[in-house]
Write a structure and sequence with these properties.
four-stranded mixed sheet; about 375 residues; Aspartate Aminotransferase, domain 2; Aspartate Aminotransferase, domain 1; alpha/beta; globular; binds pyridoxal-5'-phosphate
């Protein structure tokens, strides 16, 4: 008997081990992992430096609660604020919790309740973050949702300007909508969002849960655009697979999150933070990040060239190593075919093949993935025409 709630449609793969970009199942089959635990294992599986840091922390202490000062929390928080527009960090355990904290803080700080988010966004599965998510299928059956959330078309400055008023506590958005279909924001849209937030006394919250921690070639993706968000949320890649989330906010917000206002038993767990410290030590480095940019450009250009003749492919887009192959219909079958051929990729959208390789991926592995994708798509096209 399966003793798990069937909340996930699982693939027909049972994992045995993983190292770097490789994942091996219980039958010994090897996969090239372009999923990375859904943008989590940004340094590949079981990176040596992260493993060492976790082991060292295991030998010190595992958990003491947030009643104590912990140097490791200060260390990671310092790195996050030094590499963002924020000044203080609240640690939690997931992306949803980071966004939940951001929404609560925005309401408490502004004394207002309206939250503007965008169609096809994804912000999590808790009540506030599910409500913030602009996808009906995520809401279905869970109503009534929280009040005062409004969904707007993404990348549309005009409707944002019309929707903005004195009652808005925050505008919450992703720089590249991940689950929604790898849809990058326009620079003018982000500038407008920042400008309107300033004008109406609202907070600009950037959800960097998927785009952050080097994924797009910057510590955080908003840094491509010269904006200065009030709150940045992070998780996924932050702990290289150890569960950790962070909400990073500006100085003006610190008083609104005083003692007793918010909390988490496990938030800031020292083992997860040892992983985060080692992860950031490698990723938040200019030469590492510029390699991510180069590899991302290489992958996009290579895909564009190799898939130019494949009719179902409409566009290849993305930022850094967050890449989407936009097709003209549902790509679930293609994802299954890729997996059978040993390449792990994700659906987004649902007509987009989403590639999230580890940031440590090699050029040879990128070439191999493009070859498998091209062959699979051409094979499928040929089968459909006979
Ligand atoms: N925000 C974004 C942009 C995400 O992609 C996700 C997860 O996919 C979340 C929030 C939720 O993160 P978690 O699953 O860690 O709660």
């Amino acid at each position: 008997m399966d003793a798990l709630f069937p909340t996930y449609s699982r693939w027909d793969v049972t994992v045995n081990s993983a190292q770097g970009t490789k994942l091996i199942d219980v039958n010994g089959k090897e996969y090239l992992d372009f999923v990375s635990g859904i943008a989590v294992c940004n340094l590949g599986h079981r990176h040596e430096a992260v493993q060492k840091a976790i082991k060292e922390q295991l030998d010190k202490y595992w958990h003491v609660s947030n009643l104590f000062h912990q140097e490791i929390q200060q260390d990671v928080a310092k790195t996050l604020v030094e590499n963002s527009s924020g000044d203080a960090v609240f640690f939690c355990n997931s992306g949803a919790e980071a966004n939940e904290a951001a929404i609560k803080l925005a309401r408490k700080f502004t004394g207002k309740s309206k939250i503007l988010t965008f169609n096809q966004s994804f912000h999590g599965r808790t009540f506030a973050t599910m409500t913030a998510t602009g996808q009906e299928k995520v809401h279905s059956g869970f109503g009534p949702l929280l009040q005062e959330f409004k969904y707007l078309p993404y990348n549309d400055e005009e409707t944002l300007e019309t929707a903005m008023d004195d009652q808005v506590a925050a505008v919450l958005l992703e720089i590249v909508q991940g689950e929604g279909g790898v849809i990058p924001a326009k620079a003018s849209f982000l500038k407008k969002a920042e400008e309107l937030c300033k004008q109406f006394g609202a907070l600009l919250i950037i959800d960097e849960v998927q785009t952050g921690i080097g994924r797009t070639g910057k510590p955080f993706a908003y840094q491509h655009f010269g904006i200065s968000p009030d709150i940045i949320t992070s998780a996924k890649g932050l702990g290289s697979g150890m569960p950790v989330g962070a909400m990073i906010g500006k100085k003006k917000l610190i008083e609104a999150f005083g003692p007793g206002s918010h909390g988490s038993t496990f938030g800031g767990n020292p083992i997860a933070l040892a992983a985060a410290k080692a992860t950031l030590g490698i990723i938040f480095d200019d030469s590492f990040l510029s390699e991510v940019t180069q590899k991302g450009e290489y992958l996009i250009n290579h895909l564009k060239a190799e898939l130019a003749s494949v009719k179902v492919v409409k566009e290849v887009r993305g930022c850094g190593l967050m890449t989407g192959i936009v097709c003209d219909s549902d790509v679930s079958d293609i994802i299954t075919n890729l997996r059978e051929k040993g390449l792990l990729a994700l659906v987004a959208g649902p007509t987009v093949i989403r590639l999230l390789p580890p940031l440590t991926v090699t050029k040879e592995e990128l070439d191999e993935a493009v070859k498998v994708i091209k062959n699979t798509m051409i094979e499928k096209e040929t089968m459909q025409t006979v």
